[in-house]
Write a structure and sequence with these properties.
Largest sheet: 2 strands, antiparallel
Number of domains: 1
Order of helices and strands: HEEH
Radius of gyration: 14 Å
Distance between the termini: 34 Å
Number of helices: 2
Oligomer: single chain
Length: 61
């Protein structure tokens, strides 16, 4: 779980666009962020297994 101050800081618009930092809006995690889903890998897995992400299926081959 990320610090509350870092989560709030990530939501603010920075002085320069280059300074933007991707964080998961659900848990605040900064690493392993998927831009396509706008969440971290842990939240992505949790929601995908529940079936709450449309179009995401478990791989099998």
């Amino acid at each position: 779980m990320a610090k509350k101050c870092l989560r709030i800081k990530a939501t603010r618009t920075p002085k320069f666009k280059v300074r933007t930092h991707n964080r998961c809006p659900l848990c605040g995690r900064a690493r392993a962020y998927y831009r396509r889903f706008k969440m971290c890998r842990l939240c992505l897995r949790k929601y995908a297994l529940r079936g709450q992400l449309p179009g995401v299926v478990k791989a099998s081959w």
